[in-house]
Structures are given as structure tokens and as C-alpha cells.
Amino acid sequence: MNDKIYDISIIGGGPAGMFAAYFARLRNLKVALIESLPKLGGQPETLYAQKHIYDIAALPKVSGTDLTKQLTEQLEIRNCDQYLSTSITSIVRKDDLWELSTNKGETITTKAVIIAIGNGAFEPRKLTFDYDSSLDDEKINYFVNNIDDFKDVDVAVAGGGDSAVDWAIDISKIAKSTSLIHRRNKYRAMESSVDKLNKSDIQQLNPYIIKGVNYNPDNKDKIDITLKKIKTNDLDVVTVDKLLVNYGFVSDSKILRDWNVELNGPFIKVTQEMETNLPNVFAIGDIVTYPGKLQLIATAFAEGPIAVTKALRNLYPDKDYFEHSTSIFEK
Ligand SMILES: Cc1cc2nc3c(=O)[nH]c(=O)nc-3n(C[C@H](O)[C@H](O)[C@H](O)COP(=O)(O)OP(=O)(O)OC[C@H]3O[C@@H](n4cnc5c(N)ncnc54)[C@H](O)[C@@H]3O)c2cc1C
């Protein structure tokens, strides 16, 4: 049992959690930041490290990984206790405090909690049929860790959402050939991305579903993807070096039900001050819903300060806090 009592414990080290942690430290609060993955950064770092983001204030163009670097550098100015590779499994009220249990059997005690778990611990939606598990990571990928893994090889990307279309476009710039396999004729992606796709030399294979993936019998470096044309019995085989599956992610809202936090669908309902139905439990970022919510980093960045300020007011009503200029914190 950790004897320390934190003012605020933030569950989730994505952009929302990282910036909230820094903002709370700037107010001299005792802060714990807990992240289930071995590294901070959330979706930009894990799902699209090398894709560019164009709607962060004062950063005209930044890659997912560079955004994480900047957030890390900022957090290091006033660092907090970080619990990496640690998942919170339950939150329980004890007297006026919250006890957070981790998957490592630890308990983190805190006065306030900010839930910033995004879509939950990342679990990519996998191919639904059985295949040789040795294909995973080497031949079948669910994440892009390094785009150079796709350089100069034949690649198939599966999926029809923003992520699949964006990755197909980015990969096509370095791959030997790229195809995009989608079960519908229409994509669920931004119009501008679909325009780019249509102007590219990416081979669009739709409407097809993948029925099987096997090593190519003549060349073990290649894989054969068996495709079935929707509403027909026509089968086709595409031979490539790598398959990137982008079917989205399974969200973890089941765990939230056990935490007794009020939900609207898979999202946490919050007030204008980011409060949940539980005392001193706040939520920010992609996991929340309220009228007008946008699932964007810019919005997540704004929600952290709102939650931290409300927590500060609840915990220390007599304390002098400021809301305006941060220059008073210059050392
Ligand atoms: C392909 C793609 C492109 C995008 N492009 C843009 C863009 O251009 N501009 C933009 O503004 N937004 C973009 N987004 C959306 C943006 O990435 C999200 O809005 C943002 O990441 C939300 O941040 P977050 O911190 O709320 O959640 P996340 O980034 O999801 O981070 C949540 C973190 O919590 C951790 N976690 C989950 N459960 C637990 C637990 N129980 N215990 C401990 N840790 C836990 C997760 O591992 C994760 O690291 C894009 C998203 C995708 C998928």
C-alpha cells in the first residue's frame, strides 16, 4: 500500500491526461498520472505517431509522436508521479478519499480523480477468423509502430474509416504497392481524404471482405489474402508482404459500469465543469460526452484545466488560486 495521498490522480496518459497533469502541477497539487501502456501519449503516440495533426493551437503541423514529445517536455518542467504499464481496475470511495486499485495489486489513494481514458485501453478489432498466429506483428499488423516497416513492400490495408484511408495514403508514398480493402463501396472517411485516395494509385478493392490469410505456398515472405466479393460467391486472392488491419478499436466502457460512473452510451456524462455523478471524480477527453462535445485534442486540452480548477475549488475552498496569468509561477 502506497502511503502517499494525492490531490488528483489522473487515469490515462493521453493528451488530455498529460496536459491536465501539468496544469495541476503548475497549481502545486500532488498529482499521479497512471497509464496502462508502457509509454505516455495515448492515440497520437500509439495509433498515428507519424501522421500529421493540423488543428492544435500554435502548432501549425505536428506529428503524433512530436506532439507527445512536446507534452512530455512540458510535463517534465513540473513532473508528477507516473505509473506506467499500470491499469486502474476499480475506484472505491473510502471516507472522503478515493482508492484506486491497479492491475499490479497496488492501491493509489487520492482526494480527486480525473478519468481520461480515451476509448479505454486500446484493443484493436481483430480479424474474426482463425489464422496462423506467427503472422501477427510480422505480416499482419494492427498498429503502425514505424511507417518504414512498409517501405518498398507490397501492402494491403483493410478498413474503410479515417484511419484506414489515411494510412493507405501515407503508406502508398513509400510502399512498392498499396491496396485498400473495404467491405462497402463508400468510405467512412473525411471527404478530403477520399479525394486524395481517388487521385492516388492505391488499388481500391471493394466491396470485399477478408475470408482468410495464409503464407503464400511458394514464397513464405508473402501472404495470400483471400477476399470474397460481398453478396456473391466470387473469391479472389491478393498476394502482399504485409496486411495492416484498421477495423477500429473496442472500447472499454464495461469497466466504467463497475466504477458506478453515469454513462451515456459508452461515454461518461459530465457537467460543464467536467464533474461526473461521483464526488470529486471528473472526466475529460474522448471518454466524455456533453452537448457540443468534439473528440479533438484541442477540446481535450481545454477540459483538463476546467476539471483541475473545479477540483482545486472543491478540495481547497479557502486557498487563493488564480485563473489568469501563469507568470506568477516563474521560478
Ligand atoms: C487516426 C486518428 C487521427 C486523428 N487525428 C486527429 C487530428 O488530426 N486532430 C485532433 O485533434 N484529433 C485527432 N484524433 C483524435 C485524438 O487523437 C483524440 O481526440 C485524443 O487522443 C483524445 O485524447 P485522450 O487523452 O482523451 O484519449 P487517448 O489519446 O485515447 O488516451 C487515453 C489513454 O488512457 C489509457 N488508459 C485507458 N484505460 C486505462 C486504465 N484503465 N488505466 C490506465 N490507463 C488507461 C490508454 O492506454 C491511453 O493511453 C485522431 C484520432 C485517430 C484515431
UniProtKB/TrEMBL annotation:
<feature type="binding site">
    <location>
        <position position="43"/>
    </location>
    <ligand>
        <name>FAD</name>
    </ligand>
</feature>
<dbReference type="Pfam" id="PF07992">
    <property type="entry name" value="Pyr_redox_2"/>
</dbReference>
<comment type="subunit">
    <text>Homodimer.</text>
</comment>
<keyword id="KW-0285">Flavoprotein</keyword>
<dbReference type="GO" id="GO:0050660">
    <property type="term" value="F:flavin adenine dinucleotide binding"/>
</dbReference>
<feature type="binding site">
    <location>
        <position position="48"/>
    </location>
    <ligand>
        <name>FAD</name>
    </ligand>
</feature>
<dbReference type="InterPro" id="IPR022890">
    <property type="entry name" value="Fd--NADP_Rdtase_type_2"/>
</dbReference>
<protein>
    <recommendedName>
        <fullName>Ferredoxin--NADP reductase</fullName>
        <ecNumber>1.18.1.2</ecNumber>
    </recommendedName>
</protein>
<feature type="binding site">
    <location>
        <position position="35"/>
    </location>
    <ligand>
        <name>FAD</name>
    </ligand>
</feature>
<dbReference type="InterPro" id="IPR050097">
    <property type="entry name" value="Ferredoxin-NADP_redctase_2"/>
</dbReference>
<dbReference type="InterPro" id="IPR023753">
    <property type="entry name" value="FAD/NAD-binding_dom"/>
</dbReference>
<comment type="similarity">
    <text>Belongs to the ferredoxin--NADP reductase type 2 family.</text>
</comment>
<dbReference type="InterPro" id="IPR036188">
    <property type="entry name" value="FAD/NAD-bd_sf"/>
</dbReference>
<feature type="domain" description="FAD/NAD(P)-binding">
    <location>
        <begin position="6"/>
        <end position="304"/>
    </location>
</feature>
<feature type="binding site">
    <location>
        <position position="326"/>
    </location>
    <ligand>
        <name>FAD</name>
    </ligand>
</feature>
<dbReference type="GO" id="GO:0050661">
    <property type="term" value="F:NADP binding"/>
</dbReference>
<feature type="binding site">
    <location>
        <position position="286"/>
    </location>
    <ligand>
        <name>FAD</name>
    </ligand>
</feature>
<keyword id="KW-0274">FAD</keyword>
<keyword id="KW-0560">Oxidoreductase</keyword>
<keyword id="KW-0521">NADP</keyword>
<feature type="binding site">
    <location>
        <position position="122"/>
    </location>
    <ligand>
        <name>FAD</name>
    </ligand>
</feature>
<dbReference type="GO" id="GO:0004324">
    <property type="term" value="F:ferredoxin-NADP+ reductase activity"/>
</dbReference>
<feature type="binding site">
    <location>
        <position position="88"/>
    </location>
    <ligand>
        <name>FAD</name>
    </ligand>
</feature>
